[in-house]
């Protein structure tokens, strides 16, 4: 049965029937008003479960089932701040050399300054969104139970895979977190905290089992083996961070499984089309994008995802029409000069806008201080603009790409010492496509630099810098690192900032939780 995840209004009954109780419990599926529909009297057909599963996908794209003007899924958090992809971008990109932010929204500059606290609203937004998503997926699994129906089994596996994606983000950003699965009692006691190592082991086993239950190739936007294998590859890529023991061999194993599914690298001429308005044509087996989050200028209107990226990258002398937008940009995010310097003159990926922009960042609050970056646009593959373009792009967000797989294999060979793979050859395929010369014997520094160039703004940079011990140390300094103003000198910071704190509100309400060290 086709899963229609393109209409965010598919699940109003289920959305009304579910209320998220912060992170102190799982979904409460019994509404106070007895006249409202409940899951028990709504989930009476496979079609109804189809809609419930759709909510798990849609929750990655929007903050509310009612669109950009509706009330957010999570109370107490701005619908824009709390959108999953926007929160992910803020926490994975803003603290790094890839992005500076010019706005003064609450504590936003503390992210690039690497000086947030446990009460930071942007940190709390990501934390809450993760556990809302995990709880949604748990509910689908719980409701399906041990059904022997093949369609229902696949729905359950997809929900399991989406839960795995959120737990991957949770273990990466927050470490020791509350643990909820489909067996957690709804409305029961406060969840227990799971250690990072135990969560790693549980997630590895869970995704291995999940991968076996998913098809090798699904319809667009749905989880399949490639998605599950990517979660496993990323998990093992960072095993040294999560458990203290690197496991590049297992990372390489899952990378090779992904390649074996038949994904293909796109051509140089199609590179930027993967970040444009009709990039769904590059999604799926036979193409480069392995999993993406659907975006549509009518059906998934939200102030997050690629709406946030494309609008926030547009300002100064830039023309919003040149990016395919139907209205003025927001003028917020730019690049540090240190990141700009990583690109050679022939590298096509250096999509810098420099007219009226100063390379050096003298004033964080001035959009024209720092080069703009136009990797993501709302332009169609032929360069045209949608006839009814507005501020909400049609550009899907590529969560996982084959290029990342190639670069992971290169790291497995160069950094991890894994033999029997041609990671360096794949590394150079990425470079050749970008228009730069191959490197016969790439160094560890070459690996991290190439990951930055190829995967810029795709929500991997913070994790990569942590793994290479560059996020907080003095081994790599970029503009405004360790500071959120124009006063002072960029500097190394406390290593506690390699990890985000658990939301202080959750720690205070759940005595089972211990805050991360230093917060």
Could you characterize what this model shows?
This protein is mainly alpha-helical and 519 residues long. It has helices at residues 12-17, 39-42, 46-58, 84-93, 108-112, 121-144, 150-173, 196-213, 225-237, 239-243, 248-260, 305-312, 337-340, 402-414, 423-434, 444-455, 461-467, 504-509, and strands at 100-101, 177-178, 193-194, 289-293, 333-334, 352-353, 372-373, 397-401. Helix 7 (150-173) packs antiparallel against helix 8.
Fold blueprint:
Layout: H1 12-17, H2 39-42, H3 46-58, H4 84-93, E1 100-101, H5 108-112, H6 121-144, H7 150-173, E2 177-178, E3 193-194, H8 196-213, H9 225-237, H10 239-243, H11 248-260, E4 289-293, H12 305-312, E5 333-334, H13 337-340, E6 352-353, E7 372-373, E8 397-401, H14 402-414, H15 423-434, H16 444-455, H17 461-467, H18 504-509
Antiparallel strand pairs: 1-5, 2-3, 4-8, 6-7
Helix pairs in contact: 3-6, 3-7, 4-6, 4-12, 6-7, 7-8, 7-9, 8-9, 9-11, 11-14, 14-15, 14-16
Keywords:
519 residues, mainly alpha, two-stranded antiparallel sheet, two-stranded antiparallel ribbon, 38% helix, globular
Helices, by number, come to 18
**Average residue-wise pLDDT:** 90
Low-confidence stretches: 7-39
User: Structural class, from helix and strand content?
Assistant: mainly alpha
Gyration radius (Cα, Å) is: 22 Å
What is the 3D form? Answer: globular
Distance from first to last alpha carbon: 47 Å
Order of helices and strands: HHHHEHHHEEHHHHEHEHEEEHHHHH
Largest sheet: 2 strands, antiparallel
Q: Order the strands across the largest sheet as they lie in space.
A: 1-5
- The residue fraction in helices comes out at 25-40%
Q: Beta-sheet strand percentage?
A: under 5%
Number of strands: 8
